[in-house]
């Protein structure tokens, strides 16, 4: 490979297997979830697609996706008009894609890079699993225990 080819190849690998995304993928895989990656046919090319759960997951870098009120996202000081406009476009594009996916019947989950920092990681991943369980139960019309009140439970003994 020429240096130019190698560079292009490396940057492609980086953008596809960024670390935060790998954390989420490894977790889901270990929990028994099976998924597809970077499905091109869907708006915004979601990072992870769980067909069985009608769910797409975006693992967003805080900088490029302009995570609001986040320490990891700071518009660069030089050339700030350019960056402000660019981040605004990125954010609008994300919102548009989420909206279209939602209309198509997908649940759209977004995991932010900062939520996967060491100190938050476990909570974030557990919340993700919990959310997927809820989606699964809802889509199969399984009544959750919390929805059953005492009356209903005692009725179970009636003929
Ligand atoms: Zn963030």
Helix-and-strand structural type:
alpha+beta
* Major β-sheet strand ordering: 1-2-3-4
CATH architectural name = 3-Layer(aba) Sandwich
From the spread of the alpha carbons, the general shape counts as: globular
**Residue windows where pLDDT falls under 50 for at least 5 positions:** 150-159
CATH topology: Endonuclease, Chain A
CATH classification class: Alpha Beta
Strand residues, percent: 5-15%
Based on CA atoms alone, the radius of gyration comes out at: 20 Å
Overall residue-averaged pLDDT value: 84
SSE string, helices as H and strands as E: HHEEEHEHH
Range of helix content? 40-55%
- Largest sheet entry: 4 strands, mixed
Oligomeric organization of the protein chains: single chain
- The helix count comes to 5
| Ligand set | zinc ion
In short:
The protein has 159 residues and is an alpha+beta fold. It contains five helices and four strands.
Keywords:
single chain; 159 residues; alpha+beta; Endonuclease, Chain A; 4-stranded mixed sheet; binds zinc ion
Detailed description of the structure:
It is globular and about 55 Å long. Strands 1-2-3-4 form a 4-stranded mixed beta sheet, with helices on both faces. Helices cover 49% and strands 11% of the residues. By secondary structure, it is α+β, with helices and mostly antiparallel strands. It has 5 helices and 4 strands, in the order ααβββαβαα. Zinc ion binds next to loops.
């Amino acid at each position: 490979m020429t240096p130019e080819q190698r560079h292009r190849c490396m940057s492609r690998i980086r953008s596809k297997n960024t670390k935060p995304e790998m954390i989420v993928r490894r977790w889901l895989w270990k929990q028994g979830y099976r998924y597809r990656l970077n499905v091109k046919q869907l708006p915004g090319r979601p990072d992870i697609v769980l067909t069985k759960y009608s769910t797409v997951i975006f693992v967003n870098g805080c900088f490029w996706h302009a995570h609001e009120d986040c320490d990891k996202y700071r518009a660069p000081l030089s050339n700030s008009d350019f960056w402000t406009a660019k981040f605004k476009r990125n954010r609008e594009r994300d919102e548009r894609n989420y909206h279209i996916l939602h209309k198509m019947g997908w649940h759209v989950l977004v995991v932010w890079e900062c939520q996967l920092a060491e100190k938050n990681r476990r909570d974030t991943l557990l919340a993700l699993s919990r959310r997927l369980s809820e989606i699964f139960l809802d889509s199969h019309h399984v009544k959750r225990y919390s929805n059953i009140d005492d009356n209903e439970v005692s009725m179970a003994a009636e003929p």
